[in-house]
Amino acid sequence: MDDANDHLREESLESTQVFRGTLLDVRCDRVRLPDGEERLREYVKHQGAAVVIAVLDDGHLLFVRQHRYPLHRSFIELPAGKIDPGEEILDTAARELREETGHQAAEWRHLGTMHPCVGYSDERIEIFLARALHRESAPHPDQGEFLDLLSLSLDEALAAVRSGAITDAKTVTGLFWAEKVVRTGW
């Protein structure tokens, strides 16, 4: 652990599972704060996910449009999905790219990790760049998942972020990386 942050650390005293579903595990922990007081911390445990910045030969990026029930509207997102138990993270990225877009990639690069909601979840999303794409089939999303496949140039995608047409956090973060990697070859 980082000793420089010891004065900020909270100590877990007790952890209680409040709810467990197929997607979410909600916890309520009793913690000791740095000043010695005790508080409750509610949070969601998450198995983690991968997001894929899939770059076509012409430089366009692959996106999916899908309805997200909690906000009752459709979102434009980079291909992504949850890590299955025991699955390697690169395998998750490749599986989600194949399922959601019908593509495979010959070149993969891990770019980084993001934590989309640090105030109430331990979720982490691993960010991958996929190049040298080959379309092997039509998309075949998970049962109960419905989506449209689309491609946008990097400039179109960034304009969609600025206009509010793209607001999904993992996609906005992925586009931050895409701008750096695609434009500068970093």
TrEMBL record:
Its cofactor is Mg(2+). InterPro entries: NUDIX_hydrolase-like_dom_sf, NUDIX_hydrolase_CS, NUDIX_hydrolase_dom. GO terms for cellular component: cytosol. It catalyses: GDP-alpha-D-mannose + H2O = alpha-D-mannose 1-phosphate + GMP + 2 H(+). Keywords: Hydrolase. One of its GO terms (molecular function) is hydrolase activity. Residues 44-174 form the Nudix hydrolase domain. GO terms for biological process: nucleoside phosphate metabolic process; ribose phosphate metabolic process. Belongs to the Nudix hydrolase family. NudK subfamily. This is GDP-mannose pyrophosphatase.
